[in-house]
Amino acid sequence: MNSLQVFSGNANRPLAEEICQYLGIPLGRANTTRFPDGEFNFQILENVRGSDVFIVQPTCPPVDTSLMELLLMIDAFRRSSADRITAVIPYYGYGRGDKKDKPRIAISARLVANLITTAGADRVLAVDLHAPQIQGFFDIPVDHLFASPIIIDYFLKQQIENLVVVAPDPGGAERARAYAKRLSADFAIVDKRRDKSKPGHAEAEVMNVIGRVEGRNVLVVDDMADTAGTLTKVAEALKKEGAKSIVASCVHAVLSGNALERIANSPLEKVVITNTVPAEKARTSSQYECLSIAPLLAEAIKSIHDETSVSRLFI
User: For the chain, how many structural domains are there in total?
Assistant: First the structure.
């Protein structure tokens, strides 16, 4: 395998720069401007023939814009004779559409996987996919990383006493249980439901808290915070149940709409996030703690390039 080169689109360039700094290589030069009508104008400004290329581009908001940038970049590297193209997607947009749970809807996660494969990607490196089965939507290798080692290490250093880890819904039970095991904490779960008869993405309704949280310090573990509706309602339910303090961790801080305002007015004392997506507004508030996943991604890129095991990063 020839030289390792890392390039970035416009979605999260600071993360790509941090990855390159960790690897000790410069970020690849490319034109990432736009034509007056809004079309993405991408041109590689250095030789990539025979190179092992990694494109860092989360498909975060604006999702369609970020996704189209990724597809055009992959196509450009394929037509420039790169030896291998790995799409590094810290946040996989459209990941919530992983099944047909309503009549006459698209399975968007599968469609996006097909687009990335057809564009010419040879491999995908992702972080905390919304549903693990999305890996199976690809016909190319997928390395699925988890930010949990970074987040767990943070909370281990906090040495929170009388801790209970809470899953905000049954779908997140496995993730929260793994956190609880590593943190030597108890585990609880919230029974959350959505009214699927309503159009669009219905607001979550908290039904019951299953587990003892009264008088205890609570950590709510989720993979993403979009509008923060679920997160704040869960926090309110836990407060009603007598939780002493409530903090949360969310890998992907999408924070769309009035999410920041909701969190600010909620019982949440702190929200720990990562930089899979840019969250500049959140970083200005002391209520948030942003952890970097650049070392994790850099180590994964190094392992893929050197053809060594990536599974060591799951510990």
Answer: 2
Residues 63-97: tens digit of each pLDDT: 999 999 999 999 999 999 999 999 999 999 999 99
Single-letter code of the amino acid located at 302: K
Q: Which residues are catalytic?
A: 192
Amino acid letter, 86: T
Closest Cα to residue 220, out of 201, 239, 207, 193? 239
Pull the structure tokens for residue 190: 């919230």
140's CB contacts (< 8 A; 6+ apart) are 117, 121, 122, 123, 124
- Range of the structural domain that residue 242 is part of: 148-194+201-291
Q: Provide the token pair at 254.
A: 């999408």
Mind listing the pLDDT tens digit for each residue in 174-217?
999 999 999 999 999 998 776 655 555 556 676 789 999 999 99
| Phi, psi dihedrals of residue 304, rounded to the nearest 5° | -65, -45
> What sign does the dihedral 144-134-200-203 (CA atoms) show?
negative
Residue that is written with structure tokens 């997928």 in the block: 142
Tell me: do 217 and 141 sit in the same domain: no
* Contact predicate 83/305, CB 8 Å: no
Query: Is 156 in the same domain as 55?
Result: no
CATH code for the domain in which residue 77 is found: 3.40.50.2020
